[in-house]
Every structure is written in structure tokens, then in C-alpha cells.
UniProtKB/TrEMBL annotation:
Organism: Streptomyces lacrimifluminis
Record's protein name: Uncharacterized protein
């Protein structure tokens, strides 16, 4: 039911996959930023690792939501074109 509600709100599998990829990049960025906050001590490395892992744990959740949304879209018949193809259709038609 949650997946159907998300789909009804306009959230598509592409959005979840994009969020997953962004969280991977954000994980690296937060790790580096946290590491540079106070370089030099072991505690700083541990804090940086915790931040990187915390943000990195979002990716599997977003990928899972993307798969669930994709399956829902396939069953509903709404997974017929990519976002890029839909944009092209809107521009030409």
C-alpha cells in the first residue's frame, strides 16, 4: 500500500534510483567533510566513518524502493517510457 501511495503522489522508480545514487555520492562527501573538520586524531576518523556509513545506508533503501516502484509501474502499465523519452514527447507534441 505504501508503494501505491508513493506512486499516486508522483514518485517514480527513477526518482528512487536517483536518490540512491545521490546518497552514495553524499556519503563520500560527508565522510571527506567530516574528516577535514578537525584532521589529525583517531576520534576524527571514527566520526567521519560514522557519518559516511550513516548516509551510505540510505542507498539500499532507495534502491529497494526503486525496485518496488518499478514493479508497481509494470503491473499498472505506467512503466512504458523513460523520463527522457517522456520529456521528448512533451517537447514535440
Amino acid at each position: 500500500m505504501i508503494i501505491k501511495k508513493m506512486h499516486d503522489m508522483g514518485i517514480r522508480s527513477e526518482h528512487a534510483y536517483t536518490a540512491a545514487m545521490a546518497s552514495i555520492g553524499l556519503s563520500v562527501v560527508t565522510w571527506v567533510m567530516s574528516l577535514k573538520a578537525e584532521p589529525g586524531s583517531h576520534a576524527d576518523l571514527a566520526r567521519a566513518d560514522r557519518w559516511g556509513i550513516f548516509v551510505g545506508e540510505w542507498a539500499p533503501t532507495f534502491f529497494g524502493l526503486g525496485v518496488a516502484l518499478s514493479q508497481h509501474e509494470q503491473s499498472e502499465g505506467t512503466l512504458t517510457a523513460s523520463v527522457h523519452e517522456l520529456r521528448e514527447q512533451r517537447q514535440t507534441g
